[in-house]
Design brief:
The chain is α/β, with parallel strands linked by helices. The protein is 34% helix and 14% strand. It has one domain: Phosphatidylinositol (PI) phosphodiesterase (TIM Barrel), CATH 3.20.20. Strands 1, 2, 3, 4, 5, 6, 9, 10 and 11 form a 9-stranded mixed beta sheet that branches. Helix 2 (39-48) runs parallel beside helix 5 (132-141), helix 6 (166-179) crosses helix 7 (193-202) and helix 9 (238-245) runs parallel beside helix 10 (259-267).
Length: 318
């Protein structure tokens, strides 16, 4: 097949894949397979075939929007300029983009709980923390015009000094999104709903994704700061809270999602996309339950279940 024919076939496949189709999201690219939130992980997800690249962002001391789950450099993920594993978490906000480029994020620390959890993850030594702009550039370069982005504003509610205030955080994020011409392809998600309120005011066309977590370790719903003043006491259910807040998507931890809540969310016009679902049995169960998408460290596993069920598959980059 010639290059032109290959591009034409891919374009037709992308057009056929409806915007309302099941949303297969590669969590931090494909964290189970390659170093999280890196260009290699995002490229792997695109070649597997996903609807959406899920990622987290922070902001450097000189205002550059970078892709990182943690507001601070994680000792289980990061090696310093000397090639040794760092021992002191450094806030991204306190480092310039140039300084960050001296750190290697291409493998997990051997023997760490993180490395044991993701034992299949292949290292890519020499990998640097990417900017959000570079992720957009990669997707354009690979011709993945169908792919969307689910971008989390990574706020630190426990240590607020580690991250910017919600408004300047959102302003910096939207500046990069608009400069890349990606406003129509982006969703913004957060456990800190204040940033979502700011997005809704500044860019009402961008869908907002309200993240929730409920477990024995606690819930972000317990903090009126995190929920921007919306409370369960007033709205009675989480879907009602999300709807009242102006959300388009509710994204709960999958263990806490019930069939009753899913039905209510759908009745309110919300999409429901749970995180982070890695076990094939859980993937199968949630698809059968009727969720609108799944966020997974192993997008290949989700795709396998979708294929077995005869569901439309998002195009894969060749």
């Amino acid at each position: 097949m010639t290059t032109l024919r290959r591009l034409l076939a891919f374009s037709l496949a992308a057009l056929a894949f409806s915007a309302n189709a099941f949303d297969l999201q590669g969590h931090r690219g494909a964290r189970g397979l390659l170093p999280e939130n890196t260009l290699p992980a995002f490229e792997r997800a695109l070649r597997i075939g996903v609807t959406t690249l899920e990622m987290d962002v922070g902001i450097t001391a000189d205002g550059v929007v970078v892709v990182s789950h943690d507001p601070v450099l994680n000792p289980d993920l990061v090696r310093g300029p000397d090639g040794q594993w760092i021992t002191t978490p450094l806030a991204i906000r306190e480092l310039t983009h140039a300084q960050l480029q001296a750190y290697d994020v291409g493998r997990l620390r051997p023997g760490s709980a993180y490395a044991n959890t993701f034992s299949r993850q292949q290292p890519v030594d020499g990998t640097r923390m990417p900017t959000l702009a570079s992720v957009f550039e990669l997707v354009k370069k690979l011709g993945a015009g169908h792919v969307r982005f689910d971008i989390e504003t990574k706020m630190d509610l426990r240590n607020p000094a580690n991250t910017p205030e919600p408004q300047p955080f959102v302003e910096a994020l939207l500046k990069v999104v608009r400069a890349a011409g990606m406003e129509e392809r982006v969703m913004v998600q957060s456990f800190d709903w204040r940033t979502l309120q700011a997005v809704q005011k500044a860019a009402p066309r961008i869908p907002t994704v309200y993240l929730t977590t409920q477990s024995e370790r606690g819930s972000n719903l317990d903090s009126p700061v995190a929920t921007a003043g919306f409370t369960l006491a007033e709205h009675r259910t989480i879907p009602a809270m999300v709807k009242a807040a102006g959300g388009h998507v509710w994204s709960p931890n999958f263990q806490a999602l019930t069939a009753v809540e899913l039905k209510q969310a759908h009745s309110l016009g919300l999409k429901v996309i749970p995180w982070t679902v890695n076990d094939p049995a859980d993937i199968e169960r949630l698809i059968a339950l009727g969720v609108d998408g799944i966020i997974s460290d192993y997008p290949d596993r989700v795709r396998t279940v979708m294929q077995r069920r005869g569901m439309p598959l998002p195009p894969a980059i060749k």
